[in-house]
Design brief:
alpha/beta, 8-stranded mixed sheet, 12 helices, 32% helix
Length: 331
């Protein structure tokens, strides 16, 4: 592994509306190396997609803004780049698989035209039109779609095939970093497995680093090297795959996520849900964001922000691990 490819420092993102402000990302710190696959897990509304859009500077112009922090890509702050520079980075250096393939594709263009457009915009090798179309064919075949189907429109493809086309568009320029926003959510189980295997093979073949956004811990276990657990716009736990799945130390929210997974080797009548709801994102959080739902919460959890306990890279934001008294109380 080489030095850090991506480093996010104290990132804060807010959506401004006429009625109120929404605090979507609240002080995220993350880093990843070349060739690494990082999984971001958490409930809907945790800020995962907003974080990915912030990296590409694709937040809505009128409402979304980054209020604080840095996003360093190869040591350069993307937040200081002008629009023209970001346009050259998107697709070529950093690419994204968007969450819904049904809306990510243009219904008025053939799938071949949409891949061709991405290649043409980043045609640094000055390839001819014929060579570009040959690349379109190879990109489709790379994701398991016959090249002859490049003249067809999105409505002529199934959901799984649309997802493959979106992946082909994202990977056609061989980006160094791929942001995959729940790439298997809309697919059935068998197609999910095929798409995940294909993404793993392409990642290994192209040497692409990847941030995989998902709420499925099973997907994380298959694909990722490191995992960040997000809650209310914060990364509340971070570690290697081994740390998250094998360690006996976890943030209470992570414990809740594992507790809500059905276990095939045990006879249980009901799953164990996490009681309550995430905090209102229009209100600034005082204390620990998970405190209202936490079975271990103490008085200080509602008034103080917990620091991060670092155990050989396994980071947990919880007073149970940052304060000896808290650990005694919780036990």
């Amino acid at each position: 592994m080489s030095e850090k490819l991506l480093e996010i420092k104290n990132l804060h993102v807010m959506y401004h509306t006429d009625l109120e402000d929404v605090y979507a990302v609240n002080g995220v710190n993350l880093s990843m190396k070349t060739g690494e696959t990082l999984g971001l897990v958490g409930e809907t509304g945790a800020g995962k997609t907003t974080l990915a859009l912030s990296i590409l500077r694709l937040l809505p112009d009128r409402t979304g803004r980054i209020t604080e922090g840095e996003i360093l890509y190869n040591g350069e702050n993307l937040l200081e780049k002008d629009k023209h520079t970001m346009a050259t980075i998107r697709g070529k250096e950093i690419s994204m698989i968007f969450q819904d393939p049904m809306t990510a594709l243009n219904p008025t263009q053939t799938v071949g035209q949409q891949i061709y457009e991405a290649l043409m915009l980043h045609n640094n090798a000055n390839l001819s039109k014929k060579e570009l179309w040959e690349r379109v064919d190879s990109c489709l075949e790379m994701v398991g779609i016959p090249a002859a189907r490049r003249k067809e429109y999105p409505h002529q493809f199934s959901g799984g095939m649309k997802q493959r086309v979106v992946i082909a568009i994202a990977l056609c320029c061989e980006p160094k970093l791929l942001l995959a926003d729940e790439p298997t959510t809309a697919l059935d189980v068998t197609i999910q497995a095929q798409v995940l295997m294909m993404m793993k093979n392409l990642r290994d073949r192209l040497g692409t680093s990847m941030i995989l956004i998902t709420h499925d811990l099973g997907v994380v276990a298959q694909v990722c090297d490191n995992v960040g657990v997000m809650y209310a716009g914060e990364v509340i736990e971070y570690g290697t795959l081994q740390d998250i799945f094998k360690s006996d130390k976890h943030h209470p929210y992570t414990e809740g996520l594992f507790g809500s997974i059905p276990k095939l080797d045990e006879e249980t009548e009901r799953l164990a849900p996490i009681d309550g709801l995430m905090p209102d994102p229009t209100q600034k959080i005082v204390g620990c964001s998970f405190a209202p739902r936490c079975p271990y919460a103490m008085d200080r959890c509602h008034t103080e922000k917990p620091g991060s306990c670092n155990d050989n890279g396994h980071q947990i934001k919880c007073f149970r691990y940052t304060d000896e008294t808290a650990m005694e109380v919780s036990s």
